[in-house]
């Protein structure tokens, strides 16, 4: 119930292409879905996040699509660049009642954008 | 965004010694801090949750006597790996949330522990 499943495990995209990473969850109590980007030897950095009251959120080249009924959400990176090459993690948490609850991370996707 | 600083970024120690890792929120008060462990090419695994002034809550399977967590102030949490062994070698990452709660966690840069 607490798992967040992420796919694919790795992804190779040509420069300028669209990178798509998918995640699925089981716990319907989750109400916060962030995506993190991590470079080797660094901590994860928040890219973009969404709450279940909207189906899509876009920030620059990054878009989250959210399907509440299917319990799935995905990250789309438009016009992918070599600098986007990193590991991407989806996550989910419950943040009701004013308290911050723990993030459950997906397994990660290693993205390589070829020039 | 808010800044979380971890120190040291890298540490090498001998087996049997103890190592302390600090996590500081630099420009906000962190009511809750989380400690994660990450093995190479794997995801982040939550070790424990700490709230300022109270005992940490450990995840199942995490030895609380080996991984001592202290959250003595709203800007500082420490993780002490006691009697470290080579299998404790890992990347340790802290994160912090502020108040009011937005759901966002701010992550530190991580600390690479190598136990010889």
Task: Tell me what the structure shows.
The complex is a heterodimer of chains A (115) and B (116). Chain A is mostly beta strands and 115 residues long. In chain A, 0% of the residues lie in helices and 51% in strands. Chain A is built from no helices and eleven strands. Chain A has strands spanning 4-7, 10-14, 19-25, 33-38, 45-50, 56-59, 62-67, 72-77, 86-92, 104-105, 109-114. In chain A, the strands form two sheets. In chain A, strands 2, 4, 5, 9, 10 and 11 form a six-stranded mixed β-sheet that branches. Chain B has 116 residues and is mainly beta. Chain B is built from no helices and eleven strands. In chain B, a hairpin with a 2-residue loop joins strand 7 and strand 8 (76-81). Chain B is globular. The model of chain B has no long low-confidence stretch (mean pLDDT 91). The interface between A and B is medium-sized, with 26 and 28 residues.
Short overview:
The complex is a heterodimer of chains A (115) and B (116). Chain A is mainly β and 115 residues long. Chain A has strands at residues 4-7, 10-14, 19-25, 33-38, 45-50, 56-59, 62-67, 72-77, 86-92, 104-105, 109-114.
Topology, element by element:
The complex is a heterodimer of chains A (115) and B (116).
Chain A: E1 4-7, E2 10-14, E3 19-25, E4 33-38, E5 45-50, E6 56-59, E7 62-67, E8 72-77, E9 86-92, E10 104-105, E11 109-114
Parallel strand pairs in A: 2-11
Antiparallel strand pairs in A: 1-3, 3-8, 4-5, 4-9, 6-7, 7-8, 9-10, 9-11
Chain B: E1 4-7, E2 10-13, E3 19-25, E4 32-38, E5 44-51, E6 57-58, E7 67-73, E8 76-81, E9 90-97, E10 106-107, E11 111-115
Parallel strand pairs in B: 2-11
Antiparallel strand pairs in B: 1-3, 3-8, 4-5, 4-9, 5-6, 7-8, 9-10, 9-11
């Amino acid at each position: 119930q607490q798992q967040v499943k992420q796919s694919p495990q790795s992804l190779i995209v040509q420069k300028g292409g669209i990178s798509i990473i998918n995640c699925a969850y089981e716990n319907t109590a989750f109400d916060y879905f962030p995506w993190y980007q991590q470079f080797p030897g660094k901590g994860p950095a928040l890219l973009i996040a969404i709450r279940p009251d909207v189906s899509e959120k876009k920030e620059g080249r990054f878009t989250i699509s959210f399907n509440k009924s299917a319990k799935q959400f995905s990250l789309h990176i438009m016009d992918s660049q070599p600098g986007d090459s990193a590991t991407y993690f989806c996550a989910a948490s419950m943040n009701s009642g004013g308290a911050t609850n723990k993030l459950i991370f997906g397994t990660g996707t290693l993205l390589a954008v070829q020039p | 965004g808010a800044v979380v600083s971890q120190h040291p970024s890298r540490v090498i120690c001998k087996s049997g010694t103890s190592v302390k890792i600090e996590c500081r929120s630099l420009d906000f008060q962190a009511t809750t801090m989380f400690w994660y462990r990450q093995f190479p090419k794997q995801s982040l695994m939550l070790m424990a949750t700490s709230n300022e002034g109270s005992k940490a809550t450990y995840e199942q399977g995490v030895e609380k006597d080996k991984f001592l967590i202290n959250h003595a102030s709203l800007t500082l949490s420490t993780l002490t790996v006691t009697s470290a062994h080579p299998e404790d070698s890992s990347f340790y990452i802290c994160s912090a949330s502020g108040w009011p709660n937005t759901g966002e966690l701010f992550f530190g840069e991580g600390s690479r522990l190598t136990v010889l």
